[in-house]
Amino acid sequence: MGKTIKEALIILIIAAALAFAANYISPNGIPSVGVWYDNRGKIELEKPPSYNPKIDSLLAMEDAFTLWSEKQAVFIDTREPEEYGGGHIPGAINLPFEQWDQYWDRVKARLTPQTKIVCYCGGLDCELSLDAARELKVIGYPNAYIFFGGIKKWTDLKLPSETGNEK
Amino acid sequence: MKNSRWFIFALRLIIGGIFIYAAVDKIIHPEAFARIIHNYRLLPPSLINLLAIFMPWIEFIAGICLIIGFKYKGANLLIIGMLLVFIAALAISHARGININCGCFSTASSVKSDLLARIIEDILMAIGCIVIGLSKDRHRKILSI
Question: Which value does ipTM take for this structure?
Fold first, then answer.
């Protein structure tokens, strides 16, 4: 048995050396620590007070994270520019719901009617994301979702954020 | 049994082959495999990429060793260990009712897995490995370095 364990250890060492060498060389290589959130516990799905399942498409944390990490959706931060500048989900664009007309043309250029759109705001006490997603659906963007956990849930789970405003 | 050494050799070939086959797609697509590991909801964030980088290579090397007879007892032990981990992870996911791609053979996200079938496969392979581990060494000479 001792010999078997020794053999197993040798194989482990060979595998480790090859694994890290291959990962270093490969164009598909990944960093040894990735961007993940801790999903071991139960993560609640927060619902906006005025949530209406008939018209609102609500995203759970894991779905929002998947859309973000696989770059399958455009994230829209519906808070004010100062709040957006203070920290937002990386890659998200700013569309302050209260200043819609001023910002809309710039946001529109990034969207097609098929684009998956994830609207979020401050989380919990903010319904701008819900209002924005509803508005987007009305004007022809059926794939507008609400990530109601918002920036609060995102940073609570220690996911990265980005600061500064768009030029 | 007269043919037992061929039987054991066939077991080594089948199980080793499955492990090599299962490892290749994960080695090519470590990011997709890391995502699958994350979806199991069992590991802290810091361990996910390390496992995605490391584990497919253990599968791959252990599979080769099992077939060619190089340190195959050690390889066999590692494969049993991995199978037990897989069985536990699959059983936990099944019990939790998580709908996941098990990441057993493919990292493609469109593949949803029948977890129970995978658990049974893994149990059968583990039994095969135990048979290999308990067998006499004669089958080793069929193909060995």
Answer: 0.89
Residues A24 and A83 in one domain: no
Between chains, do B78 and A12 touch, taking CB under 8 Å as contact?
yes
Residue A39 lies in a domain: no
Number of domains making up chain B: 1
Query: Are A29 and A92 in the same domain?
Result: no
Measured between beta carbons, the chain A residues lying within 8 angstroms of B39 are: 62
Residue B142 burial (10 A CB sphere; 0-12, 13-18, 19+): middle
Does pTM surpass 0.80? yes
For A39-70, give the DSSP string: -SS-------TT--TTT--B--HHHHHHHHHT
Contact list, B56 vs chain A (CB under 8 Å): 19
- The beta-carbon neighbor of B78 closest among A8, A34, A40 is A8
